[in-house]
Design a protein that fits this description.
This protein is an all-alpha fold and 70 residues long. It has one domain. The longest helix is centred in the middle third of the chain and has 15 residues. It comes from Ogataea polymorpha.
């Protein structure tokens, strides 16, 4: 899962205003694992993350997206 986060965070550290990323996964569990890696590796960089998956509250997820995640 770190394979998704590391290159994107490296690029983001070079230009924090210029990157917006999207990672698509086949399962909810993988999406959550990748989000955990982004959160752990990007904690010192104030990375904003949103996980959008089926079967969850759509309003809560919409609010996460309105907060403009990276």
């Amino acid at each position: 899962t770190i394979a998704f986060a590391a290159p994107m965070l490296t690029k983001w550290s070079e230009d924090p205003m210029g990157i917006f990323g999207l990672v698509l996964t086949p399962t909810r569990e993988l999406a959550l694992q990748i989000a955990e890696q982004f959160a752990a590796l990007g904690a010192s960089m104030n990375i904003r993350i949103a996980v959008v998956v089926g079967g969850e509250d759509m309003m809560k997820q919409a609010i996460q997206l309105q907060n403009r995640p990276h």
